[in-house]
Design goal:
Elements: H1 31-44, H2 48-61
Helix pairs in contact: 1-2
Length: 74
């Protein structure tokens, strides 16, 4: 292998994975929720943020909808 390479003549090209890049967001999650995912992530050997992303991606793929029922105010 060469000690140095000349990249000056290389053509630029777009990153083929750019559409799959992740966007950083700030979320406030309950401590018990974070602990739950951290525990599962440790068992699976993956970062907990990746596990949360995988779970949300699965919800997206399965078109899951949450049904929120607020208690009656009276």
């Amino acid at each position: 292998m060469k000690a140095e390479y000349d990249f000056s003549k290389m053509k630029a090209r777009k990153n083929p994975y750019a559409s799959k890049l992740k966007r950083p967001v700030t979320m406030r999650l309950s401590e018990d929720v974070v602990a739950y995912f951290k525990g599962m992530a440790e068992e699976a050997g993956v970062p907990y943020q990746s596990l949360i992303n995988l779970y949300l991606r699965d919800c997206l793929a399965q078109n899951r909808r949450i049904q929120i029922r607020w208690p009656n105010a009276g």
